[in-house]
Design a protein that fits this description.
2 copies of one chain form a homodimer. Chain A is an alpha+beta fold. Chain A contains 10 helices and 27 strands. In chain A, strands 6, 7, 8, 13, 14, 16, 17 and 22 form an 8-stranded mixed beta sheet that branches. In chain A, strand 25 and strand 26 form a beta hairpin. The longest helix of chain A has 15 residues. Chain A is globular, with a radius of gyration of 22 Å. Chain A starts with 18 loop residues before the first strand and ends in a 5-residue tail after the last strand. Chains A and B meet through strand 7, strand 9, strand 10 and helix 7 of A and strand 7, strand 9, strand 10 and helix 7 of B. The complex binds calcium ion (CA) (2 copies), magnesium ion (2 copies) and nickel (II) ion.
Chain lengths: 423, 423
């Protein structure tokens, strides 16, 4: 238990301690610095470091002085673990250092209500995978109704594509409905218009810790050491633009209008109690993608999609679980670097949309509305019908794992869609 | 004429003045700073700025103190033009400021032989287009022999994909032959092996100047103001890996093993005398991609590919021209941002492989060797046969425009292929 009090269902427990970057609402974004969330509070890591509370980081200091966590990410697991141990001690109810020092507490502890989050890292490169078998199958059926839903490579390769790093934004940033080229299946030529099939994608993404040199792949046995932690991710998708553009070089404008991540990075240490086996892989992966069978290389994380409109309050519409992913983060990372591609601290690797096997476990509206053919209804007075996202609609992704008497949660990954600018 | 003497075929004329980032070979890379190349020399812009020779940059200073040109790129065309005008004056033969000040010259002028180039910018995002009709047609025939070579969207969209920024390297960096998954057309399952069809791609790429806010597209009439200048680019490609992985999300591991650019950025100002009309576009582009017909929106730049092996000296094997590109840089940039995708100063946008209409004007070996079926021979004693790149081979791309009594050249974009590491 911590001297910062919170309830059992609080997302930011002492067992969690997710990392983010914040500034007080009364401060300018140039004053942002790293922090850790606990209960209804955030702990200022810059102040703790300056107060000499992380002596083991000394040779790397300052680690927490910038408005991003890239340097901390580069330090690797042993120092992450030591930092976590120190934070758990400092925040434990029987530890007086912070608890009984009102001056230090005043400088280092703030209510979350009074802070603004920025992106937790400078994202050098962002990659998005496509690792849910259920999602790839659903989407294949919709995009290529006359072909086998899974391309022949899907069961062999953690298929992914390079995404757009500049348009990754933090939860709360509004998303503007894009213009683009689309072509109706029956039309003879494309049209330039506002996106009419705007969608979300329920994903998680991990931040890379230490990177690798160009030309030197990361091996499976070391893969986990390169994973710092996870966030929720909404990969906003313009389905009509994507459908017309994606052959043969993949999604481009259909995906670069904005990608929202949750502000708090939950570390692998915090997720340790929720390790589970990943789905059985058949055919067996090629040698470089092979994980030891005893390893539990994925995590049981409950995921939820909440949606609201200008009239209707935000409500839960879908749920899923991170453990459904066919390809693990370790396999994604190893595959990404097998050509020698260099990863850098702060790179972001998205899971791909996470759909599940049963009814209601879809990770996107194109799946839920069966390609826009089966509208669903949002509850409440005057509940609206939807196939895709309309202007003013809000999407909120949530994620949490339930421990024995505590919760490890991700906070909200939220965004509201604004109407297009006129062209 | 300049007081720095050079011959008429020198790539770095007073009319050129390309920007790069360099350090002396005797210095550490941490001391790198921006410079301009002229004749056999480089002019240190950090020293010129510190000496007060760019008074008009004062409110932004320091502009040239870092090991990248991103800040200068962000300033926009009027300040780029003023800087160029000042450099032309300082380097003109009748201007004594530098010419007659041996102390300043000693601090600010170095022989290119004694310097090392780094990447000229911090590349936030790298995008690669596919804008040569000849190349897209050739590749379509090879990758999809039973389909129409151009996908239906090609004549409507400057097709592109998000590339890997971390693996963009400067000319001279060795490239390691990658491992990866490939599947022979006749095989029932893929194999994990060393790439057997390693290729180059002859491209040019432009650096973005001022960027745009997320959600706010760049319009055609302003597009040119966002283009800082061009480099040569070799988009190394593992054809066997690419062929197996690319459906449906596009090239990934086939392209992230390394992308080489030439170190000196030739500005649009320097290319101004070489403006030409781009190819007639039929069908006419949609409204947002429409350029005024009187605009000459592309450039006449001669391109050459030189190749050598461990036994055979580097020799010219192919040639092409930037003016063949069907889609212009302005159209690529406008299309990229039409969804609101934000570009940032220092982003790199590649042209795609530039093949031409006639024999010998191919931009890749997969085209030149007809998919690996027609080996070509390198001249010289014991001249080797090649379909793709072998270990130890070197590729050098060259580019230049011939003015009236002067040359505007790009310098070399060179790289040698090293054998794979053992797995
Ligand atoms: Ca996605
Ligand atoms: Ca290319
Ligand atoms: Mg996105
Ligand atoms: Mg490349
Ligand atoms: Ni259910």
């Amino acid at each position: 238990m911590s001297w910062i009090k919170y309830s059992q269902d609080c997302q930011f427990s002492l067992q969690n301690l997710p990392y983010g970057v914040f500034h007080l609402k009364t401060e300018s974004p140039t004053q942002a610095r790293p922090g850790v969330a606990i209960g209804d509070s955030v702990i200022d890591l810059k102040v703790l470091e300056q107060s000499g509370l992380f002596p083991f980081l000394k040779e790397h200091s300052p680690v927490f002085s910038k408005a991003h966590l890239n340097k901390f990410m580069s330090l690797g697991r042993p120092l992450w673990q030591q930092t976590r141990k120190t934070l758990i001690r400092l925040l434990s109810e029987d530890e007086p250092t912070l608890r009984d020092d009102p001056e230090l507490r005043g400088k280092a502890v703030f209510k979350l209500d009074f802070v603004e989050n920025l992106l937790p890292a400078k994202i050098g490169d962002y990659t998005d995978f496509y690792s849910s078998k259920e999602h790839a199958t659903n989407l294949g059926k919709l995009f290529r109704p006359n072909d086998a839903p899974l391309k022949p490579n899907w069961l062999w390769i953690p298929v992914g594509y390079h995404g757009r790093a500049s348009s990754v934004v933090v939860s709360g940033t509004p998303i503007r409905r894009p213009w683009g080229q689309t072509k109706a299946p029956t039309a003879t030529q494309p049209t330039f218009k506002k996106c009419a099939r705007l969608d979300f994608e329920l994903e998680m993404a991990f931040f890379v810790g230490p990177g690798n040199e160009l030309g030197v792949p990361i091996k499976m046995e070391n893969a986990e050491d390169h994973i710092f932690g996870l966030v929720l991710m909404n990969d906003w998708s313009a389905r009509d633009i994507q459908a017309w553009e994606y052959e043969p070089l993949g999604p481009f404008n259909g995906k670069n209008l904005g990608t929202t991540i949750s502000p708090w990075i939950v570390t692998l240490e915090a997720l340790e109690p929720f390790r589970v086996h990943s789905p059985q892989q058949e055919p067996a992966p090629l040698v470089y993608l092979k994980d030891a069978p005893e390893n539990k290389s994925t995590y049981d994380i409950n995921l939820e999609v909440w949606m609201g409109t200008k009239q209707t309050p935000v409500q839960k519409i879908l749920h899923s679980n991170f453990k459904y992913m066919y390809w693990t983060m370790k396999q994604q990372l190893v595959h990404h670097t097998i050509t020698g591609c260099n990863l850098r601290p702060g790179d972001l690797l998205g899971s791909g949309t996470i759909s599940g096997p049963s009814e209601g476990e879809f990770g996107s509206l194109i799946e839920f509305s069966v390609g826009g053919k089966r509208p669903f209804k949002l509850g409440g007075e005057g509940g609206s019908e939807r196939c895709f996202i309309e202007d003013g609609d809000s999407l909120v992704l949530k994620g949490f794992s339930l421990g024995d008497g505590f919760t490890v949660g991700f906070g909200d990954c939220a965004g509201q869609v604004l109407p297009s600018h006129e062209f």
